[in-house]
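Final report, section 2: Outcomes. Of the targets proposed, DNA repair protein RadA is the one most frequently requested by collaborating groups, and we therefore present its record in full.
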Amino acid sequence: MAKTTTTFRCAECGWSTTKWVGRCGECQAWGTVDQAGGPSPSRRTTATSVSRTAQPIAQIDVEASRARSTAIGELDRVLGGGLVPGAVVLLAGEPGVGKSTLLLELAARWARSLATTLYVSGEESTSQIRLRADRTRAVHDSLYLAAETDLGAVLAHIDEVDPSLLVLDSVQTVGSSSVDGIPGGVTQVREVASTLVQVAKARNIPTILVGHVTKDGSIAGPRVLEHLVDVVLHFEGERDSRLRLVRAVKNRFGPVDEIGCFDLADHGIVEVPDPTGLFVSRHQQPVSGTCVTVTMEGRRPLLAEVQALVSTSEIPQPRRATSGLDPSRLAMILAVLSRRCSIHLAKSDVYAATVGGARLREPSADLATALAVASSTHDVVVPTDVVALGEVGLAGEVRRVAHLEQRLRECARLGFRRAIVPQDGSSDLSGLEALDVIRVADLAAALRAIGVGR
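The predicted structure is given below as tokens.
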């Protein structure tokens, strides 16, 4: 007889061991090692009957798999045109960011097109969901609600309602009685997700699963959950801001560099097709220490305003405070201003922030930050029709940025008249005659363009 050896395998990375351990020895994940026993000798798999005959790719009909619009333009932008029949979407986000509100609005709009929609919640009762639906005006006869935490009951609802769209909130609250573990555990999440994926593919039902996130922002549960689904979306937003962003992390049917903008209002969630005004302030009088730049969120250019305040410090170590900017990049920019442009800030407090809670992570905001700091230091107003783009190097040079043409076209559309850009940008700027493009080679030249320095 063949000797049977019990093995244990990590659900995250596949690492195996002959005894159970609480922590994976490869990826260091806790609670992911489960029994995967079986006979140690390998058995050869034989051919079986096929479920469907293979066809030439040109003969396969794709009309049944065309994406259908969700009636929410910003969400369609991220999904690549809409929901594909049979696709499974995983929407993850922090608690309170508005995931349930967005999906209830999606379910209501889908139901208004006379398409049966099933919304299953494992976190709220049906009466609680109805209260939120009354507030957001998401009540429709084609929208069915169910509160279940058992996978078998969810499948029974699917058989009974036969929906054209399924929303499950959330995958971590539903468990299956056929496997061990508590709901939200590695084994349970994998079983629930794989079962619903099979049902979605077999019945051609687009399915949206809500996923929890850990304190570091990653999706809770096994990594295989992200591999099972077709689309992974992250719902992001600051607690002190009403702006919400939907960002695609994985998308088998569209781009992964698109974002959707939403406004979380009292009456629900509203899409924001043009969010530029949220990050640019309007001053009644000219103010020094401000400069506008253009950042790229996915494929979308967004204007953002950088503000700086420089004041004489009364303490031995001056303060350096930032909001929405990288503190290390601000420190580098201050060093370049001091060494290359003779703007000494060693005895000054420097405060730098963005308007509207925008987060500027890319280096293209370096030039606007430097101009804002220099403007505040010399009390020189940067004209309100000027926008600055460029990465500042340690030698004081202004380096090129990606998608320069697209950024400048957005500036021209919003009425800006001058743009300070790197000299080595090779983009085609034809059609931008209304925009005066000032090319600079270094930071000193950029400062001269706004009237600072010689």
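Residues 66 and 84 are 6 Å apart (CA to CA).
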